[in-house]
Design goal:
Blueprint: H1 6-9, H2 14-27, H3 40-47, H4 51-63, E1 67-70, E2 74-77, E3 86-89, H5 96-102, E4 107-117, H6 121-126, E5 135-144, E6 147-157, H7 171-177, E7 184-193, H8 196-202, E8 209-218, E9 224-233, E10 237-240
Parallel strand pairs: 3-10
Antiparallel strand pairs: 1-2, 4-5, 5-6, 6-9, 7-8, 8-9
Helix pairs in contact: 2-4, 3-4
The protein binds 2-acetamido-2-deoxy-6-O-phosphono-alpha-D-glucopyranose.
Length: 247
C-alpha cells in the first residue's frame, strides 16, 4: 500500500485512488475475503494519507458492498462472497438498476406480471384513479447477477405508462424518457416473515425474515407516478439514513 508510484499513476481524488488500490489488494488476495482490513490508523500511516481520506475510501467500499464494518471489530472484506449484504441509502431516490450498477452488479429480472389490468380498490386509492381507469402493472423478481434480491410489484396510472410492455430493464429509465421521472417518494418499511411463495422465489426457507417496502412516488407537480409494494430479503439489505438534529 506504500504510496510510491500508484498515487501518481492513478487518477481522481486521493480517497478514490486509495479505494481503487484497496480493491486491487482485495482482487489479488493481499486482503483475503472475509478477512479484516488494517485499522484506519494503520492504513493512514502506511499510505501517508489523512484519516479523513482513509475513512472516505472505506466508506465507498462499504457502499459498494465490498467491505462491511462490524461494531467494535473494524472493517472486513466481503469480496466476491455471494451472500454479502448491500447497503441501501434511504435518503436518495434511485432505481434498482442504478443501485446495482453503482455496486458493479448486473441487474436482472424474472417477470411475474406485465400488462394492463382492472385496478384493485387499493390501487384506485393509492393512484387516485377515476372510475373506469385501468392500471399498468409490473411485477418482477429482481436479481443481482444470479442472486434474487427482491420481489417488486409496481402499479402505475395508464397515462403515465401507456405501454407496460415497453419496460424491459429499467422502469425509471422509461419514465424519464417520457418526462415522468419521480422526484420524491414516501416509503414505509415493515418487518415480515416470508410466506412459502415469496420465500421460494427468493430462494429462502419459508418464514425467513423479509422486509416489506411500500413506495409511493410523485412527480414535481404532486401527481402519483407509481405505487410499489416490494418484498426484500432480510439477509441481504442494510438500510442506511443520515439523521440530523431537528430544530
Ligand atoms: C426501486 C424502487 C421501486 C422502483 C424501482 C425501479 C422500492 C423499494 N424501490 O427498486 O419502487 O419501481 O426501483 O427500478 O420499491 P428500475 O428502474 O430498475 O426498473
Amino acid at each position: 500500500l506504500d504510496p510510491g508510484a500508484w498515487m501518481e499513476t492513478m487518477v481522481g481524488p486521493r480517497y478514490v485512488r486509495l479505494r481503487k488500490r484497496i480493491e486491487e489488494g482485495i482482487a489479488t488476495g493481499v486482503f483475503p475475503n472475509d478477512g479484516p482490513l488494517p485499522p484506519e490508523r494503520e492504513l493512514a500511516s502506511l499510505t501517508h494519507l489523512s484519516r479523513v481520506t482513509v475513512r472516505k475510501a472505506i466508506q465507498e467500499l462499504v457502499e459498494k458492498g465490498i467491505v462491511v464494518q462490524r461494531q467494535g471489530a473494524g472493517s472486513f472484506v466481503t469480496g466476491t462472497e455471494p451472500n454479502r449484504r448491500v447497503e441501501q441509502s434511504l435518503s436518495r431516490l434511485t432505481s434498482f438498476t442504478e443501485d446495482m450498477a453503482r455496486r458493479g452488479l448486473e441487474s436482472r429480472a424474472t417477470w411475474l406480471e406485465k400488462g394492463i389490468f382492472f385496478p384493485s380498490p387499493q390501487e384506485v386509492v393509492a393512484l387516485a384513479l377515476s372510475s373506469g381507469d385501468s392500471v399498468a402493472r409490473l411485477a418482477r423478481l429482481r436479481l443481482a447477477g444470479d442472486r434474487p434480491m427482491a420481489i417488486e410489484r409496481a402499479s402505475l396510472p395508464l397515462d403515465i405508462l401507456p405501454d407496460p410492455a415497453s419496460v424491459n430493464t429499467s422502469l425509471y429509465e422509461v419514465l424519464e424518457a417520457a418526462g415522468n421521472h419521480p422526484v420524491r417518494a414516501l416509503q414505509k418499511i415493515s418487518a415480515i416473515n416470508l410466506d412459502a411463495e415469496e420465500a421460494g422465489l427468493l430462494g429462502l426457507d419459508p418464514n425467513s425474515a423479509g422486509l416489506k417496502i411500500e413506495r409511493t412516488s410523485y412527480l414535481e407537480n404532486g401527481r402519483v407516478v407509481e405505487y410499489t409494494r416490494s418484498t426484500y430479503r432480510g439477509d441481504a439489505y442494510d438500510f442506511v439514513a443520515e439523521l440530523r438534529l431537528a430544530n
